[in-house]
Amino acid sequence: MQVDLKGRSFLTLKDFTPEEIEYLIQLSADVKDKKKKGIPVNNYQGKNVALIFEKTSTRTRCSFEVAAHDMGMGVTYLDPQGSQIGKKESIADTARVLGRMYDGIEYRGFEQSIVEELAKYAGIPVWNGLTNEYHPTQMLADMLTIREHLGHLKGVKLTYMGDARYNMGNSLMIVCTKLGMHFTACTSKEYFPAPELVELCNKYAEESGGSVTLTEDVLSGTKDADVVYTDVWVSMGEPEEVWEERIKMLKPYQVNKAAMANAKPDALFMHCLPAFHDLKTKIGRQVYEKFGLSELEVTDEVFESEQSVVFDEAENRMHTIKAVMMATLGL
Known about the structure:
The protein is an alpha/beta fold. The protein has 13 helices and nine strands. The chain has helices at residues 18-37, 59-70, 91-101, 112-122, 136-150, 167-178, 195-208, 218-222, 242-250, 257-262, 282-291, 300-303, 310-329; strands at 48-53, 74-78, 104-108, 126-130, 157-161, 182-186, 211-215, 227-230, 268-271. α2 links the parallel β1 and β2 (74-78). The model has no long low-confidence stretch (mean pLDDT 96).
């Protein structure tokens, strides 16, 4: 089918059909191949994009900036102190100002309602670099990575271990059920995704041949998994006080050698990063001093294993973000 995404915003994969998602994954693979071969995709000279970061980032910022520069575009980075958005100027007013100057806007921050309002008023494509609820650009990178390593997506069993109530658990459940994959949230029942989203994703699964499973049992949750996925236990912007509760509730769901051994022999380990798998970070050392844990959501043994594809995922953020910008700005 012919896919035309020009002028569309990219806010959540709930807004996209399976065919449109598959198109973006294939476009990502194509631009990655061109990048590796040194074939330029730089016919976007004269276009400019604004990157609004209310939450800081390494991979998302670098991915957008390198992708935009590769494409020949100008980039303006606005950090938490770099704009008046939501402080001295409303979201709607900011959107209408930036929409007059730029060709696209990326937003990474807090409530999904903010990026939705930006898209409503900007008059240009708006791309979600992460909100509390959704992380769609990460999903494209993850799906491209799985396809590269396993050769297919449909029928793949992906198990997410950790707090599945927020952006990563939500988005993985959406993309898996849209693409005919089998999604399992393996965590404490207090951390299951919202029932209304589970209901919606079950409808996606009925159409695609996928499925949704929620379980507290690690053995059944990881059994024969093709992919075991996790994320940090405490998200950016959450108060320090939640660490103790999260560690207590999520420690049984750490991705370790036993969990990976229960999955398929060639199962992939995935993580959107950053990961707390050693004591080489400031937060990692603080957690160790307070709770005595040198590894959190994943052990260093798994993180550094041959099954780990976390740095392939990180690289693929750039290729998939380039594809999103190309498709929505016009090829």
